[in-house]
Write a structure and sequence with these properties.
Elements: H1 2-5, H2 9-23, H3 28-45, H4 58-85, E1 94-99, H5 105-117, E2 121-126, E3 132-137, H6 143-162
Antiparallel strand pairs: 1-3, 2-3
Subcellular location: Cell membrane
InterPro entries: Cation_antiport_E
Organism: Paragemmobacter kunshanensis
Length: 163
């Protein structure tokens, strides 16, 4: 019964936490709305998401989130320095192809989202076979190093979490 009402419990929990962070109020009305969203959104999206993603390690997922938060902070400082102090003719933007070994659609989406969320990089496209991401980097004097960093820093962790 509970599984039918909450087909994706992690999503429901995430929605409750996100709602409280957005409204920044611990009131009964906020709790009712959070519970409503945590129930309705997974029920509406369940037909489009028939299989729950398998998480092999919740602690690894939490450490991944902390790593991404840290990387976003560091990248903000780096991008600010590039934009404010680097002469335009020295900025070396580049398109980078990143071959991926991930098989889980959720892991691939999380990788693409992580890259986009990190200032200075954006996931622009994915190959039709689903094995290569096209990334644009604001400043990439060594595109291979950025590709290798994405694979070792993010993809390897996501493989441990999801596969």
């Amino acid at each position: 019964m509970l599984r039918r009402l909450y087909p994706h419990p992690y999503l429901s929990l995430f929605l409750v936490l996100t709602w409280f962070l957005l409204v920044n109020q611990w009131k009964l009305g906020s709790l009712v709305m959070a519970a409503f969203l945590a129930t309705v959104i997974p029920l509406i999206t369940a037909p489009y998401w028939p299989h729950r993603p398998r998480l092999n390690s919740l602690p690894a997922l939490l450490s991944y989130v902390l790593l991404v938060v840290w990387d976003v902070i560091v990248a903000n400082v780096q991008v600010a320095k590039i934009v404010l102090f680097m002469p335009r003719d020295r900025i070396q933007s580049a398109w980078i192809r990143v071959p991926i070994e991930l098989k889980s659609p959720e892991a691939i989406a999380l990788l693409a989202g992580t890259i986009t969320m990190t200032p200075g990089t954006v996931t622009a496209d994915m190959s039709s076979c689903g094995r290569v991401l096209l990334i644009h980097s604001l400043h990439a004097p060594d595109p291979d190093a950025i590709r290798d960093d994405i694979k070792s820093r993010y993809e390897s962790r996501l493989k441990r979490i999801f596969e």
